[in-house]
Sequence to fold (963 residues):
Amino acid sequence: MPELRIIRSYAGVQDSHKIESYIQRGGYQALPKALGMDPDDIIDLIKRAGLRGRGGAGFPTGVKWGFIQRDSKKPIYLCCNADESEPGSFKDREIIEQDPHQMLEGIIIGCYTINSHKSYIYIRGEMPYGAGVLERALEEAYENGYLGKNILNSGFDLDVVVFRGAGAYICGEETGLLESIEGKNGEPRPKPPFPAQSGLFGCPTIVNNVETLAFVPHIINRGAEWFSEIGTPKNTGTKIYGLCGQINNPGLYELPLGIPLRELIDEYGGGVPGGRKVKAVSPGGSSAPLLTADELDLKMDFDTLSEVGSMLGTAGVTVIDDSTCMVRVAQNLAHFYRDESCGQCVQCREGTWWLEKMLTMIEEGRGRMEYIDTLLDACSQMRGTTICALADGCAMPVESIVKKFRHEFEEHIKLGKCPFEREHMGEWS
Amino acid sequence: MPKLTIDGKELEVEDGLNLIEAASRIGVDIPHFCYHPALSVVAQCRQCLVEVEGVPKVMPACNTYVREGLIVKTDSERAVEARKATVEFTLINHPLDCPICDKGGECPLQKTTVSHGPGYSRFEGPEEKKVRQKYYLSDKIIYDPNRCIMCTRCVRFTEEVTQTGELGYEGRGFRKKIVVFPGKNLDNELSGNVTDLCPVGALLNKDTLHEERVWYWKFTDTVCSLCSNGCNITVGVDPRKGKVARVRPRTNVDVNDYWICDRGRYEWTDIQDADKRLKDPIIRKGEGYEITDWEEAVSFSATRLLEESRKPLQSIAFITSAALTNEELYLFKKLGQTLGSSNIASSIGLINDKKTFGLLSSDPYPNSTGVKDLGYPYGSNMVFEVIESIMEGKVKSLYTAGIDIFDFVKKEDKPRLSEALSNLSLFVAQDVMLTETLRLAHVILPGASAYEKDGTFTNDRGRVQRVRKAITPPGTAKADWEILLQIGKEINETLFSYKDPGDVMNAIANEHPAYGDISYDNIGMLGVQRSGPA
Ligand SMILES: Cc1cc2nc3c(=O)[nH]c(=O)nc-3n(C[C@H](O)[C@H](O)[C@H](O)COP(=O)(O)O)c2cc1C
Ligand code: SF4
Ligand code: SF4
Ligand code: SF4
Ligand code: FES
Fold:
């Protein structure tokens, strides 16, 4: 089965990042159309299309745009979240590098809709190549009259700037991102107020993911009905799924929301290598609770996964086969979040540290049985008690691993060592 | 005025209050570390979690504001468990070295742990805790990153209150620590306040480091005497040493908010230096000096003052300063008037001058307003005039209290003043330390500092505030009011029949309409505004 490519029309196209290529593929046709529309109608269209944010939470984009008070006396900002730092997620990067104009067209339409005249693309610091591509794309867009003053003679002005992050996962969290643009430490803000009321420099702000914005021109071009018929009724459109980990064909696949996980792994990913079996799957980036081999028939959409206590997140799927130690997986995750916690909230700053410590002790054969329940308890108190969702992002997968693979933890503790071969697992600092 | 319910109790409060403040109105104490009424709300410590009906998550009370119909539960199982967990997380990497921590005994973290914590830790192996070096943030303040709970109060203080921005943090997550920005020093005039703001023993004063356990200290609520602002303070006295160990701000939003300046906090050590203090009365006998007792000193002074006043061409001068309390100024003036002096003066500072951070005034006296209010011919001119007549030999006898008149003459005039003072037929001087002036006196009367006596000062905005005795003066030294009263009684028993400073205040109230309503009963802990313009 081929992919259903809406965004990934660039795949395999020579010089797809250039403006000519984008125009050739039908690009910048939505913009004049949108500029002739009433912003309320655009919001309505996006709502009817059912577009949900692709940054992780699946929040309806039209509803979010509707929160902006468009006649605000303060400037209004749209920030494109291109910080993609979630382990296992690499979809935005490809859009940025291969087809920057697609997201740019989405940004321009979004700005027009919310009456914003300045937009920031916040790109992850470790993507210098993508930042260069974006810079060139901006130049092309200005040259062609898609940016700057009086865009396509509509009277609408817009400037877009690329802002490079400095290497912090937490700057992908929308208010951490805003702080970072303001030149401060990337530390999420307590909410309320929400960015739509008081965001960048205290002004009304929308933060949208790259993929979310890339869908916008297509919906303008082809209509809400067309989009809403793809996927499932409440999870419309396609999604770029990432496949990585112990899988034969890692990569990106654009498919309708709601395709079964098993199909994704077996048909598109070609199954796990070496004839081994799937043991666990992280379905949506490192923050998503893990699924077991028994849960592969689940549909890959926001609602289905959330019903079973996991989440679609970024749809970056990491496949883990039966040669892998799950304690080590949990330890690896906790280690990442421990290093990336901004350190404001105690549950997160100390919790991630504590989880990592306990998991390391178990992995190294120094753990005790009580640790298992302590781990679960700590995870449960890290969820929903902090400023942002990073603490949840650590607690949820770790908790799911402890619950679903408890026997592995017990085995480690009983044996006083890790029962798995470790040669292929490198050390980390 | 929204109505809400907290722990089943209904209350009506003004808009804009957060739940910590609202709950405190009905005596419900929601523990908190990062929230401080004078600082922005950051909701970082997560210690104030409460349950709000209809909201799925526990909410930080500091960042949740009162609303009509809000139903808040601070005592539900979920809220209690969440706060208990917060304590446990907070203590994971905390050294728990309370026994050797100066904050022990007055530590919000310690208190919160006892009242809201789990009472045990499931964290094993203290050897696993992260341990980091302590370092100084300034020559007065030491920082212990291991104890720091990252509430960022100290950082916000330098950002928002002093707006000097010396402090920031370095690192992320568990590596985070408080640092002084490169190229800056934590040397603003209010810097010491971060040690009070710190809810743990992460910021400590070097001067009292490991001096004494705080629970042995005795605390007295009084007022700072080092400038005309009159900041409300609490003085901690180490009873073993009988000395002030620490000065801390006492909240008074009409005077000093939550703060005091570093001068008020650290620069009272001189007064405590026993070597520098006068301890007993001294009388000049011939060429030498002799230590004496109060009976002799008082009767000598009184007798001689009376004699001088009865001389046909008498010219007694009385000079004091705004360092004295209202009661002392009143007694001093009355003494002068009783003895028929026409040269009564007091030095004052520049009132209502610009203040540093709205506190520290350039007027170094605590009671310049009192001097004016009590009808002293004021202004530095007046003191200069009297000193001028001393130098011209027009003044035959002199009584000074709390003033070194050499400070008021130019260097080249000092020999002239020395000579004039040596030629006086009587010179009574009262002060806390030996000064150039006192060396030439016939009688030296050792007085008391503001930490050692009772009385009132009127600050530069006309607020009458109580100073209270926190320690006893060294040796047999006495409060200045007591000395003046004793001499006064010798001179005229009925005119000086006051029992104590409170009694003197009643007299002030009778004679000075601006003080008409004021008595020690109604000054209270925070002082009262006297009537009339500030
Ligand atoms: C710790 C953390 C990291 C995040 N990182 C990203 C990111 O790299 N990219 C992104 O688009 N959203 C990220 N998010 C989600 C954003 O906060 C925000 O929800 C999203 O950008 C909204 O865009 P959307 O409505 O288009 O999905 C992150 C959230 C958290 C809590
Ligand atoms: S949850 Fe973690 S990352 Fe998020 S604000 Fe709190 S400490 Fe920072
Ligand atoms: S040093 Fe004290 S006041 Fe400063 S952040 Fe740490 S705990 Fe808070
Ligand atoms: S501002 Fe003045 S009154 Fe206040 S503490 Fe400093 S010296 Fe004392
Ligand atoms: S006091 Fe509310 S989070 Fe710190």
